[in-house]
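[stage:ingest] chain + small molecule (magnesium ion)
[stage:ingest] validated
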Amino acid sequence: MAEGGSAGHVVVRDVGKTYAVDGDGIESIRQVSFELERGGFLGILGPSGCGKSTLLMLLAGLFSPSTGSILVGGTGVAGPRRQTSVVFQTPVLFPWRSVIANVLFPVEIFREDRTAHLARALKLLETTGLLEFKDRLPEHLSGGMAQRVGLCRALITDPELLLMDEPFSALDALTRDDMGVELLRVWEEYRSTVIFVTHSIREAVFLSDRVIVLSPRPAVVVREFSIDLPRPRRLEMQESAEFNRFCALIRACLAR
Ligand code: ADP
Ligand code: MG
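[stage:predict] done
[stage:export] tokens:
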């Protein structure tokens, strides 16, 4: 197997992205490099407008980098792939489709057998506490429930890599905390590699094995932190000295 060839292993090498705007170039990210082992959970933190979403879109194959290369599972990313799922800030569900039909939507896109995925869809809904709402339409869901549906939909294809772009930012603080705990539970069970963009330091520390801090635009990697807090993580942990030490270190790094 090639270097970095195992499923879900991510290698980002010297990646830069400059957008062409009216004959001008807007340099969004510059020489970003990192590697992520299969099944790892990486948090990406940076100021607003620094290039975090750009980086995720490059990983998703929705844009191509101007320089450098990205490998997922040993293969160069050249476009969107079934093995990579993305969760955005708002889930964009089809309003006329039930919860379960929304979760199964990617299966139709990839022209796969719906019944073969039904058991997985039901299990995902059960894990996220949505089973009893499977036949509801999205208009009857709270923001947190809708985002859970989005998460189930992202996981229905058993992706190697799950990309999340500030997925809980639109939720109230309490729901947001619950979603973090739930995401970790789902991740422990399904073990996709996760790259999670946020501008909440506490959220990044709570969820991640590692946190990468990006500079203001053009984003470069300022520093990488290993978050060696024990798992499973519980919300009470956020009161611990260890947790708050990580937050303080990262805050200082971002302020620089
Ligand atoms: P973040 O997600 O960290 O807030 P983005 O990746 O969305 O940042 O944007 C980084 C920079 O790139 C911003 O200055 C933004 O204006 C610019 N940018 C993002 N998308 C485009 C685009 N499609 N065309 C031109 N410039 C863009
Ligand atoms: Mg963004």
